[in-house]
Amino acid sequence: QVQLVESGGGLVQAGGSLRLSCAASISISSIYVMAWYRQAPGKQRELVASITQDGSTNYADSVKGRFTISRDNAKNTIYLQMNTLKPDDTAVYYCYSRRVSSTNWGQGTQVTVSS
Fold first, then answer.
1. How do 67-72 and 103-105 pair as beta strands?
2. Predicted confidence (pLDDT) per residue in 11-23, tens digit
3. 4: how many CB neighbours lie within 10 A of its CB?
C-alpha cells in the first residue's frame, strides 16, 4: 500500500499560479505511473496529467500549455505546477499512483480559482 499526501492547494485569483505536491510513502522510482486527477462539484473525476517511470508525460487538453507535471525521485514527490489558472480549474485535486500490484489515491487538496 502506498500512502500519498497532497499539499499546496488554496484560493487564487484567475490568472494566478499554484504548485501542488504529492509525497509518497515509498520510493516513487518503483511506481509505474503517477498522476493528478481532479473532481469538480457535480462532475466526474478526470485525469489532469500523468508521468511514467521514464518521465513521459500526458496532459488533458484543457490544461496543455498551462500545467506541468514533474517528479523528484530523491524526494519521492511529484508536483503539478499550475499557471494561468481559470475558474473552471476549481476542483479537488487528487494524487494517484499505479504499480503492478496496486493503485492508490491521496485524500485530495482543494483548489479554488476566483474570477
1. unpaired
2. 999 999 999 999 9
3. 22
Q: How confident is the model at residue 36 (pLDDT cuts 50, 70, 90)?
A: very high
Q: Measured between alpha carbons, how far is 87 from 75 in angstroms, rounded to an integer? A: 31
Nearest-5° Cα angle at 104, 55 to 80:
45
- Residue 105, CA distances (Å) to 3, 41, 71, 83 in order: 8, 18, 17, 24
Cβ neighbours of residue 45 closer than 8 Å, sequence gap 6 or more:
37, 38, 39, 94
Mean pLDDT (whole number) for 81-103:
96
From the list 94, 81, 80, the residue with the least C-alpha distance to 4 is 94
